[in-house]
Amino acid sequence: MCGIVGLHLRNPDLHPQLGELVTGMLCEMGDRGSDSSGVAVYGDPTWSPPGHGCVSLLQIDATADEVADAVGVTVTQLDETYLLTAQASSKDILAAAKSAYPEALVAGFGADLAVLKGVGHPRVLTERWGLPKAQGWQGVGHTRMATESAVTPAGCHPYAVGPEQCMVHNGSFANHATIRRELRAAGVSFDSENDTEVGARFIAQQLAEGRDVEGALKELCAVFDGFYTLLVSNRDSFAVVRDAIACKPAVIAETEDWVAMGSEYRALAGLPGVEQAKIWEPEPEVIYAWRR
User: Fold this and answer.
1) 3-class DSSP state of 126
2) Would you put residue 43 in left (φ > 0), alpha (ψ -120 to 50) or beta?
3) Is the pTM here over 0.90, yes or no?
4) Tens digit of pLDDT for each residue in 43-76?
5) Does the N terminus or the C terminus of the chain have fewer Cβ atoms within 10 A?
6) Cα–Cα distance for residue pair 3/199, rounded to 1 Å
């Protein structure tokens, strides 16, 4: 099943409430998938300070101080996720982190981006992360019911495999094995057997080749078979698309202050001003995108 949520804040006055609002949305989707969860937060001044690169790592057998000494960065540990920040590019931090911890799982990287993942119910994980206190202008989250791969941090969404990029997914890709082989032949490496990671790496490749988010999603719709609802984000954008049959549930709501998406309306019901929102179900293979 799985549940996906996304919140893009247009009104800066709401930025201090981002974590609280995304926590409520994510926990409402807990019964759509309670084995693991993840969230991407754009713009928290503590987790990813302005002017700093940020790398999110998992599966490290070391203390935060040990990681800081080994990589030469500031490290914040939130449950099992380590956030590495410095006044350097995220790619340079990532290279140093991989050199020190080659077996670590890279959960995400990029300016203004922190990605947190874990195994367990979102109500437990959001408390451990301190997510309700997070700030920022955009948040993306996922609650997982595993069907395609093991219940591990590597199988959690969001998949954030390009700089400042994230993807969450409800559904399944029927031809992911074929596309995985094609991507591997092109030099792309994978962290899991999850079909969602194939879609995320495909999108990242499209963006790296110069396509915008809308163009990348159009290409994905043309190449991938299956039933899916996708939410793709980067530092400045937020986009949603469903497959040609649109059998996976999705609801979008929009006000002057924010744009939000959830697998079900109840994920949106607690947002401020939702009573005045324009609310609709996204059409099949129509790409809905918003930018800062």
Assistant:
1) helix
2) left
3) yes
4) 999 999 999 999 999 999 999 999 999 999 999 9
5) C
6) 17
- The domain locations on the chain are 3-47+135-291, 49-111
- What does the alpha-carbon distance between residue 180 and residue 281 come to, in Å, rounded to a whole number? 31
For the purposes of burial, counting CB atoms within 10 Å of the CB of 235, is it exposed (0-12), middle (13-18) or buried (19 or more)?
A: middle
Fold of 3-47+135-291: Glutamine Phosphoribosylpyrophosphate, subunit 1, domain 1 (3.60.20)
Q: Of 2, 54, 166, 221, which is the active-site residue?
A: 2
Q: What is the DSSP string of 53-84?
A: EEEEEES--S-HHHHHHHHTSEEEEETTEEEE
User: Is 2 designated active site?
Assistant: yes
**Backbone phi, then psi, for 212, in 5-degree steps?**
-85, 180
Q: How far is CA 1 from CA 88, 264, 268, in A?
A: 39, 12, 18
Fold adopted by 49-111 = Alpha-Beta Plaits (3.30.70)
DSSP string, 218-286: HHHHHH--EEEEEEEEETTEEEEEE-SS--S--EEEE-SSEEEEESSGGGTTTSTTGGG-EEEPPPTT-
**Biggest distance spanned by C-alpha atoms of the chain:** 51
